[in-house]
Write a sequence for this structure.
């Protein structure tokens, strides 16, 4: 390995390095990143949905897609019942005039915690998913580098990102089913347990992974493109500056740019995933009366109804959410990794 390659810590394995961070420290770093991202981005989507509801009130039984850059949530609003749809409340007693005005008025009249009313289900899913995803990515990246000692192969971050995402969404998928039931129906945990047991009895154990296909279809290409772009930008910046690590602002910009590129390229997969989520949510609410259609039928129907351009709708909202979420997530993750690395090096020197 050349001296230049040894100065690329983003692609260089941690193993054997005196400041190497442990898997537990990687988990803490990713967990912290997920929490920070959720805390900073969730209020924006709460405000967005409240503004939408003010302009055009949601109807009873209407499904709402809520996404904060980390997780997607499909909710069903029952008229006058905010328990099943915590992001929607009637705002007849005050008028919202834009994002900033909404942030101020919601905090003033309903309490500042209302801005994070969508946070619990996000944390339930996003924190374990992110911990599994980032830790798996780092371990796979180390494995691929140690195979032949080459750090410059472009496919390694792509392969590590894709495999890590497959692993993460597969493990989290049963929790997704539980969360969907919690959001769409007024059910106790005991009732959810019985519903899941019934689902396994009638549909087999694989029924717990319904909707996994469309999730992988969108998230795996996104993950592969994101990590390829981020690691490439990171190595170029390190070569340019001669530093051993990216600074916080550099990671932030690289994360935002990489997230934007991946979001644009994988937009058709996101459109399909959104339609699939809504159909699955409807099937849950209708208690089996409505069966969610196979993914390929959704693609065909969407193409017939809206043409090829229908697969590229919603570009701006997707980028607006994903770019800052990716930037916050990766910059905080890199910051805490460097924090633990420095801590470990100091411990070795004592």
């Amino acid at each position: 390995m050349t001296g230049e390659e040894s100065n690329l810590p983003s692609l260089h394995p941690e193993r054997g390095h005196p400041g190497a961070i442990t898997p537990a420290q990687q988990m803490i770093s990713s967990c912290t990143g997920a929490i920070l991202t959720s805390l900073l981005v969730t209020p924006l989507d709460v405000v967005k949905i409240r503004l939408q509801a003010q302009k055009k009130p949601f109807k009873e039984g209407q499904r709402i897609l809520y996404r904060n850059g980390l997780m997607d949530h499909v909710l069903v609003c029952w008229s006058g019942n905010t328990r099943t749809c915590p992001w929607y409340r009637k705002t007849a007693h005050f008028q919202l005039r834009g994002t900033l005005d909404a942030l101020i008025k919601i905090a003033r009249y309903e309490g500042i915690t209302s801005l994070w009313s969508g946070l619990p289900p996000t944390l339930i899913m996003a924190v374990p998913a992110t911990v599994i995803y980032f830790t798996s990515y780092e371990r796979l990246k180390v494995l691929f580098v140690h195979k032949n000692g080459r750090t410059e192969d472009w496919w390694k971050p792509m392969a590590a990102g894709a495999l890590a995402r497959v692993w993460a969404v597969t493990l989290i998928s049963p929790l997704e089913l539980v969360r969907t039931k919690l959001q769409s129906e007024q059910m106790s945990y005991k009732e959810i347990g019985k519903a899941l047991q019934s689902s396994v009895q009638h549909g087999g154990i694989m029924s717990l992974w319904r909707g996994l296909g469309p999730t992988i279809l969108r998230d795996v290409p996104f993950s592969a493109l994101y990590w390829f772009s981020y690691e490439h930008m990171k190595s170029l910046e390190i070569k340019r500056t001669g530093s051993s690590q990216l600074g916080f602002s550099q990671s932030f910009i690289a994360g935002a740019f990489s997230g934007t590129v991946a979001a644009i390229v994988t937009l058709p997969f996101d459109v399909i995933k959104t339609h699939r989520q809504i159909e699955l949510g409807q099937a849950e609410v209708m208690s089996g009366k409505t069966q969610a259609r196979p993914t390929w039928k959704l693609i065909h129907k969407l193409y017939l109804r809206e043409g090829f351009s229908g697969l590229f709708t919603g570009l701006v909202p997707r980028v607006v959410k994903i770019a800052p979420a990716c930037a916050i997530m990766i910059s905080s993750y890199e910051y805490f990794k460097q924090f633990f690395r420095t801590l470990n090096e100091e411990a070795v020197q004592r």
Notes: The chain has one domain: 3-22+118-349. The domain at 3-22+118-349 is CATH 1.50.40 (Mitochondrial carrier fold). The longest helix spans residues 315-349. The chain has eleven helices and two strands.
